[in-house]
Amino acid sequence: MVLPLATRLKPSQLRLVRSIHDTGKLQLAAEAVNMTQPSASRLLADIEAEVGGALFDRQPRGMTATALGEAFVRHAQVILAELDSLAAEVGSLQSGKAGGVRVGSVTGPAVSALLPALMKVRRIAPDIQPTIEVAPSVELMRGLEEGRFDFIIARISPDSDARAYQAYPGRTEEVAFLVRAGHPLAGGRTSLRAALEYEFLIQEPGSPIRLAFEQAFLENRIAMPERITNSSSLLIALSLVGQSDTIATQTHEVAQMLSGIGTGLTTLDLDTAISVPPFLVIHARKRKLTSVAQRLLNEVLRHL
To answer: Which residue range(s) make up the domain with 77?
Structure first.
């Protein structure tokens, strides 16, 4: 069976014909593609035999393309451009300068580490295509197990097999009480007991912030607040806190960001520190990270 012409031609043949067309001289074309003139002459003869006709008219002043040659060069330029584009894209993917990366994070480090790291990477790799999801650790761990994330910034679930993951230490987070700027407790030192008079918006039971919140009240022998709305939604927190005297628990980094962007919110000056166990940067041991995912992960670690 005779193979189609397109499958029999090689990139080196296409480049030689293009170079002859551009220079009009076989010797100059041979030098441009790093061939000797005799080798280039034999290769051109082979190409013309494959095509079934002359691609160039040989004249004393040089070589000019025939109609067949013009058609050949036109298509050769398209093919070579695609090959060059493919080589560039493969190189970018292998070097971590392009490609997709999927990251999940709890809210605090998403603000303090992931976004600054992404902006840093974007300056040297503008063509990356990141997907970021902010969610509680339990949801993020499930997503990592299902292969929906390249890596996550979260806390390993108690029921997860820690041996299945590569984890890098993050840092301890502090819990802040977020309120509207006109809140009765804002502007002065306050206590957990004083905060009991107000409704709270707290993350769901079992979440790290909720556990740290409950532990702080237990250690200080103070009863838990009676009026609690359970939600991890930052949008609900912004809406509820902005319209009432509700107190919302957030990590210190998130609360500081929100109070500094003209939201009319602030944090209470608590006399009790509430700490959340350190988060981790986690990826599955069995799945090799792509170059772009590894580049972003390394930058996240530098921001911790």
So the answer is: 5-94
247-251 and 265-267: which strand pairing?
A: unpaired
Domain count, the chain: 3
List, for residues 233-257, the tens digit of each pLDDT value.
Answer: 999 999 999 999 999 999 999 999 8
Which of 61, 94, 127 represents a domain boundary (last residue)? 94
Q: Which residues of 26-35 are buried (b: 16+ CB within 10 A; e: fewer)?
A: beebbebbeb
What is the value of pTM for the model shown? 0.67
Q: Please, are residues 173 and 186 in contact by the beta-carbon 8 Å criterion?
A: no
Confidence of residue 95 (pLDDT cuts 50, 70, 90): low
Statement to judge: residues 206 and 234 lie in one domain? yes
Rounded to whole angstroms, how far apart are CA atoms 58 and 124? 49
Residue of 171, 162, 100 whose CA lies nearest to 129? 100
